[in-house]
Amino acid sequence: MNTVRPQAVKPIDVAVGILMKANGDVLLGQRPEGKPYAGYWEFPGGKVESGEDILDALKREFMEELGVTILSAEPWCGVEHVYPHAHVRLHFYISRNWQGEPQSLEGQAFAWQGQVDVQPLLPATIPLIEDLNALRYALGV
Asked: Is there a binding annotation on residue 45?
């Protein structure tokens, strides 16, 4: 008897941005109704389109979701996470240089956070908070 193994699902690449103010505050957005994990807080971003550079995807998503122009961003870390609805590969960038004030263009709530205290956090985000705080502390923020 031959056993057919399911083909491994290729992860979906997602560009994720952490806007960081000079005082170390970071922007989190709340997932709107109608999306998986609605009501959970996350760093803004979205899917990378076929053939699109990750940084270009980040810039596009921030303009579409928040009306913000990313002027520069540095890669920070990458995380793979398997949710019930999707296997994602998250590419995190930190931007300290952007233009415009965030606006809720997709009906999402957002909040600037020093010590992150919004709940619930998207599961893939939780382990990064401690590392992010260590980074902010290392910068003297």
From this structure: yes
